[in-house]
Each structure stands twice: as structure tokens, then as C-alpha cells.
Write a structure and sequence with these properties.
Helices cover 63% and strands 10% of the residues. It folds into two domains: 179 residues, no CATH class; 146 residues, 2-Layer Sandwich (Alpha-Beta Plaits). By secondary structure, the chain is of the alpha+beta class. Helix 1 runs antiparallel to helix 6, helix 4 packs antiparallel against helix 5 and helix 9 crosses helix 10. A hairpin with a 2-residue loop joins strand 2 and strand 3. The strands form two sheets. A five-stranded mixed β-sheet has the order 2-3-1-6-7, sandwiched between helices.
């Protein structure tokens, strides 16, 4: 069927496809066993030999499914199923309902990941031609063996039950896989979104994510006040030059943990860039936001940051600005940034509001 040449194992084959074929073989094995019992009970023990042959073939295919190439596994499945359909209709007639087993064949082909669309369509056409050929044959030629009365009713019920069971197993296997794939894709997309909006070093929001938070807040609450603060670590370059960038990274991570704790439930914080952090306090005016920023400033000066065998103390300078309901976000951030640099030139370790 034009499929790639890989062995049927857990590394190269999705489990759903493995279980679909495996369970189908097991169901067919039970089916052939029941058919042997039925035909023997009808008084035709010699007629059970072909069914016994297919039973053995199914068990062998089931046993070697882990050791056979995907191409051959599907070819065996198609050959066993299509061969049995043709045999059964030729010997026992159209009324036995054996044509139902064509549908599981088509389902396996359509859901196969290892085949091209052209081959799937070609295989469907093959199944259609096979069914029509069997139909016209049965219309023009009587079956070799004729079941009558209760016998044909039993065979029809057996074929119908097995057809529905096999079809259900295949559909459940593939639909469960599609649901899992969709769930994995959703989780993966969520993870990508989180990664895209998270600073990898501090795990705080990054600049892009904070800009989205601010825009969404203004869009949803156009008449609500809020304040923004920008903080910058004093003499951070000296830390990197003296102790190395790994030490600088440790300072950033330690302060980020502190900011996360201090803003929990009150606002948001992000790494704005380099050693700069931006704080967002919804529903707070300038005076309200200055209070938590003073508390954060004091906490920073008291924070003990350990790196290897040294202890580091840092200070920060902050600029705070509130929404004036006229300026853009970038303008508000710029005014907070201007206050920050005013604090930098007037002693540092302060909050300018």
C-alpha cells in the first residue's frame, strides 16, 4: 500500500495504530473460533477447515505484530480480511452479511498515517470494485454451500456482531488518539504562549507580555485608574564586573522572587529589560502605588543575596507614575522612567513619585 518501511514498534508506530490492529486480530480469532463451533453444530465439520486456517493465520499475525514491518502488517491485515470476505461470499452467499467487513478495512486505510492520500483513495476504489464484483457474482452464481433457516440467521447475527465490535474498536482507537493529540496540542500551545510571555531567567512576565496586560486592562477598564512604576538596580554593572554575570543573574532571580511575593494579589511585575523591572498596580492612584513601592524599596535594601561564598546587598531606584486618562502607555512609562533617572541623579535608593 505504499507505506514507509519501519518496524512496528513503540518508537516508530503510535500505540493507537498498534492496538487497533492487535485488537482486530484478537476479535477475528474469536470470530473464527465461534464460526467453527457454529458450522460444526450445523453438521458440516469439514467446512470448518478454511475457518481454522484463517484462525491460525490471525493468531500468527497477532503474535508477530511486534516483529514485522508496518507495510507487511497492514498487508497481512488486508489480505486476511479481504480474502475471508471473498471466500465467505463465494461459498456461502450474499445473505450471510460478510460484506460488512469491508468497512473496517477502509477505516484502517483512511486513518493510517503511513500512506498517501492517493493510495488511500486507490484502496477505497479497490474495495468498492471488490464489493461490486462480489455482488454481481452472487447475483449470477449460487453459493457453493447454502445455509437455510435458523443456520443463516445465526451466521448473519454472528457476522453483524463481529462487524460492529471490530468497527467500534478501530473507531475508538483512532478517536481516542485524535482527542489526545488535540489535548497535547492545546497544552503545547499554552506552554508556547507562556514561554513567549515569560522571561526565561526570572520567570516573570517579559516586556511583551506586560504590554499586553496593560493594553487589555485599559481596553476592559477604560475609566479605571492605575499606576506604573519602573525600578532599576543601582550599580548593577559593578556587580557583573566584580563577581561575574552568573552572580548578576542570581541577583536578578532573587529580586524577582521578592517582587513576586510583594506584588501578589496587588499588582503585576515584569522584567522590563536588563536590570529594569516594571510594576503595574490596577485601581491605584499615585499615592496608593507609592506605598507598596516604598515597602519594596526597603525590602530590597534588606534583602541578603548569597552567591557561592559571598553575600551581596543591593539597592534600587524607582519612578512611579499614574494614568492621566489621556496619555498612551508608552508616555506613562516614559514619565515613570524620567522620574527613575531623576532619582538616579539625586542619590539613588529612593522612590520618586
Amino acid at each position: 500500500m505504499g507505506m514507509i518501511n519501519h518496524k512496528f514498534d513503540a518508537e516508530t508506530t503510535p500505540l493507537y495504530f498498534y492496538f487497533a490492529l492487535k485488537r482486530s486480530y484478537e476479535i477475528y480469532a474469536v470470530y473464527f473460533l465461534l464460526l467453527i463451533i457454529c458450522i460444526t453444530g450445523f453438521g458440516y465439520p469439514l467446512h470448518t477447515l478454511p475457518a481454522a486456517g484463517w484462525l491460525i493465520v490471525c493468531l500468527l499475525a497477532r503474535h508477530y505484530i511486534n516483529h514485522t514491518f508496518i507495510r507487511w502488517n497492514l498487508l497481512f491485515y488486508v489480505t486476511i480480511s479481504a480474502g475471508w470476505i471473498c471466500y465467505f461470499l463465494y461459498y456461502y452467499g450474499w445473505e450471510t452479511g460478510a460484506t460488512s467487513f469491508i468497512l473496517p478495512l477502509m477505516l484502517v486505510s483512511m486513518f493510517s498515517l503511513y500512506d498517501t492520500l492517493f493510495n488511500k483513495i486507490a484502496f477505497t476504489v479497490f474495495l468498492f470494485v471488490m464489493r461490486m464484483a462480489l455482488f454481481f457474482h452472487c447475483q449470477t452464481h449460487p453459493p457453493v454451500y447454502v445455509f437455510t433457516g435458523i443456520h443463516i440467521l445465526i451466521i448473519q447475527i454472528l457476522n453483524t456482531v463481529v462487524f460492529f465490535v471490530v468497527t467500534s474498536v478501530i473507531c475508538i482507537s483512532f478517536s481516542s488518539n485524535l482527542q489526545k493529540a488535540e489535548q497535547h496540542l492545546m497544552l503545547y500551545n499554552i506552554e508556547l504562549q507562556q514561554q513567549a510571555g515569560t522571561d526565561p531567567l526570572t520567570t516573570l512576565y517579559n516586556r511583551r507580555r506586560m504590554e499586553e496586560v496593560l493594553k487589555n486592562h485599559i481596553r476592559a477598564n477604560p475609566n479605571e485608574n492605575f499606576s506604573i512604576a519602573i525600578g532599576d538596580i543601582d550599580f548593577f554593572k559593578k556587580i557583573n564586573d566584580t563577581y561575574g554575570h552568573n552572580c548578576g543573574d542570581q541577583v536578578l532571580k532573587s529580586l524577582s522572587d521578592l517582587f513576586r511575593e510583594k506584588t501578589l494579589g496587588a499588582g503585576h511585575v515584569c522584567r522590563w529589560g536588563g536590570e529594569e523591572f516594571l510594576f503595574f498596580f490596577p485601581e491605584m492612584n499615585l499615592d496608593n502605588a507609592t506605598t507598596p513601592m516604598n515597602e519594596i524599596n526597603i525590602a530590597v535594601s534588606k534583602c541578603i543575596i548569597s552567591y557561592k561564598d559571598i553575600t551581596i546587598h543591593v539597592t534600587m531606584t524607582f519612578g512611579v507614575e499614574e494614568n492621566d486618562f489621556q496619555s498612551s502607555i508608552s508616555d506613562i512609562v516614559k514619565r515613570a522612567d524620567d522620574k527613575l533617572y531623576y532619582g538616579k541623579t539625586h542619590g539613588r535608593d529612593t522612590v520618586i513619585s
